[in-house]
ABC transporter ATP-binding protein (Promethearchaeum syntrophicum), 266 residues
Amino acid sequence: MENYENLTIKVEKLSKSFKEVQAVNDLSFHIKKGEIYGLLGPNGAGKTTTIKLILGLLEPEVGNISVLGLDPEKNEIEIKNQVGYVSEEPLIYKSLTPKELFNFIASIRKLDGDKTTPKLAQYLESLSAVEYYERLISTLSRGNKQKIQIIAAIMHDPEILIMDEPLTGLDAKSVKVVKEILELHTNRGGAVLFSTHIMEIAEDICDRIGIINQGKMVAEGTMETLKQSVSAMGENLDLEDIFLKLTEQDDSINHIIENLRKTMNL
Ligand SMILES: Nc1ncnc2c1ncn2[C@@H]1O[C@H](COP(=O)(O)OP(=O)(O)OP(=O)(O)O)[C@@H](O)[C@H]1O
């Protein structure tokens, strides 16, 4: 029996469409305290739409969402105080330096400078971003912009981190540092919603994974239980095969490879 007091995010029977596109279709899942939950799905599966609904940036057509017991449609500001969000799009405040951006965030969030300054220095150093601190964000590389976006999302110590494809563009060392940040965050009771289209990343980082395709949940569980259900199917499939199968990409990938071989004369 689930202990509902332990839940940070609860999504029930959520649906959202854009004209003829059903982006999210009767989706339900929950995220517990201390858990990294991965939304795994191919391009266009509905991951970003789900995240925007949870943040109150989009209105659901049907369904319920609770974030720390709050309704995103009614409590957008309160939820923003408890959540750190890394969006899929690159950072918007391009005409600022990271220093100006962090000062701006600290002032709107009314953060204590004595606590925030050393924390920021540590994050910048850990992510090898000290030298970019006073450069215009518009002049930074994609990966360095992403590091600044991640620091901006965690600097107020939110209870929940919602990260939409956060590792895009990061080098191997920074990926390791971000993974460590997520682990430390969950060790102290925080929760993470993490979206990715890359199965290995979900496997490496997430405690539980929800595989979505065309807005629908097609499988959910720990990596262990997902692997067990794969072997229970009796076929000689690895997890990558099952991901492609569940997301209906297995036939099309074989077809694409066959056509590519013909085109490239192999
Ligand atoms: N504002 C919008 N207007 C129209 N269609 C939209 C809009 N936002 C999303 N969609 C459509 O909804 C579907 C789900 O998109 P979404 O961005 O949620 O997918 P995703 O899983 O995050 O994909 P990706 O991995 O490529 O980022 C797609 O078909 C997309 O084209």
